[in-house]
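Extended Data, panel c. Modelled sequence:
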Amino acid sequence: MAIAIVDYGRGNLHSVSKAVERLGYEAVVTGDEAEIRTADGVILPGVGAFGDAMDHLRGSGLDRVVKEAAAAGQPLLGVCLGMQLLFSSGEEYGEHEGLDILPGTVVRFPSASGLKVPHMGWNRLYFSQEDHPLFAGLEEGHVYFVHSYHAKTEQASDLLAVTDYGGPVTAIVGRDSVYGMQFHPEKSGQLGMKLLGNFLALTGAVRKPEGQNS
């Protein structure tokens, strides 16, 4: 069994797959429904605009597969734009429907706030639920963000970690077996890789023996 990285034409596939392999797990970049359904865990990456990404997901039919995976309890992680797509809607270049796996809306940072947009660089994570298994063995620290839009969750229990950028900003979300990270864990040093590793451990996937990692 492997970790399926969903290929719908709008993701940072190479960097995510290499990070999974560095952590000792098998990664398969795929748009094949059967491979995604039978994987131990699923990662939904994403770069670009919300509406365009959703168009590609729907056009490939993979929106349905991702939603089915979440409903079936298959561990799912959305990364950067992939996290935003988990929500009900997004306001980037108009109103667009998301996957609606998590209730909430993705909105732009307010231009009148004086903040630089996009939010780009290293910002500190603050754990909202310190005892969550995703944070096992970890301490709060800095991770790397690049985004102009951020998610506003409707349910406080879905919020696992925030960062501070003119106020609290959603950084990690989670509900049941569904997770999302607004930052790039594969580009976020030791803490980012440990967070990704904790998610992979939660999938139940078996790590490859030492010496067989790519």
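The helical segments are 13-22, 33-38, 50-60, 62-71, 81-85, 189-202. This feature is highlighted in the accompanying rendering.
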